[in-house]
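User: Predict structure, ligand FE2/S2 (inorganic) cluster.
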Amino acid sequence: MDRLIPEDRPALRRLCRVDEIPQGGAKGFAPAPGCFTGLFAVRQAGGVRVYVNACPHLGVSLDWAPDRFLTADGQHIVCSTHGALFRPDDGACIHGPCMGAALEAVLIHIIDEIVFVPESAGC
Ligand code: FES
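Assistant: Predicted complex:
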């Protein structure tokens, strides 16, 4: 786990504490100031992943309501527009019109149980 932010690391944006993302669930985040696209985080057994909230099919947001990014069984990320399904672990589309494409993953840093992303993520 990182404890220090070296000066040569890109500027980081604080997203939230890890425990603010429900285990087995997801949480959405508004775009950073000056940016257009939000982010969302999923937290599963393999840890936390963050993706840009844009479907590879048409570029629209995936969620149909706040923090609603997962299928009812929590096994996949789902796009609310045409129902594409994505693997939470790597964002790969496994069903739907963008099959073979993937969500844009965001590099995260977890420092003292707080999730940080590059300030430019989603811009
Ligand atoms: S916009 Fe997401 S599947 Fe079409």
